[in-house]
Write a structure and sequence with these properties.
Layout: H1 3-10, E1 16-18, H2 23-33, E2 37-42, E3 45-51, H3 52-60, H4 71-74, H5 88-98, E4 102-107, E5 110-116, H6 117-140
């Protein structure tokens, strides 16, 4: 299975914010949408990701002003990302290895979606459930 299979189910709507926006605007958007990350854009290109962790480590801890600090100055860039044809096993390895929760789906700078560690876990649980059902039917079918 690949990333496209998750995007087909969850959709491709991704919350994003311009790199010139303030951290305060980003935090307000994240609160309104009840999400933990925004993809950062410049024009129509995805250039980074801004997460709750970035707020804590790059804004709050160094005592920067959320109102005057631009997202582009404190975003994570370059960001880890994947393509629509990336196998889910590769995505799990990236998320686990880099200790991140959000993986933008980007091809040639264009944003196609976002998958989360939760999406990957839900997919894995679904696959395991199918395997359990198959094995149960195999073992208990009448002969």
């Amino acid at each position: 299975m690949n990333v496209e299979s998750i995007l087909e189910r969850k959709g491709t709507d991704v919350a994003s914010i311009d790199a010139e926006a303030s951290v305060l605007q980003a935090a307000e958007l994240m609160n309104t949408r009840r999400i933990g990350a925004l993809v950062v854009t410049r024009g129509d290109k995805a250039v980074g990701i801004f997460t709750e962790r970035d707020i804590l480590t790059r804004v709050v801890a160094p005592e920067r002003s959320p109102r005057s600090t631009r997202v582009g100055d404190v975003m994570t860039s370059p960001m880890a990302c994947c393509r629509r044809d990336t196998p889910l096993t590769v995505c799990r390895a990236i998320v686990t290895g880099k200790r991140i929760r959000h993986l933008p789906v980007v091809e040639e700078g264009r944003l196609y979606g976002l998958i989360s560690a939760g999406d990957l876990l839900a997919n894995e649980v679904e696959q395991q459930q199918h395997t359990i059902e198959y094995l149960y039917e195999y073992l208990h079918r009448t002969r």
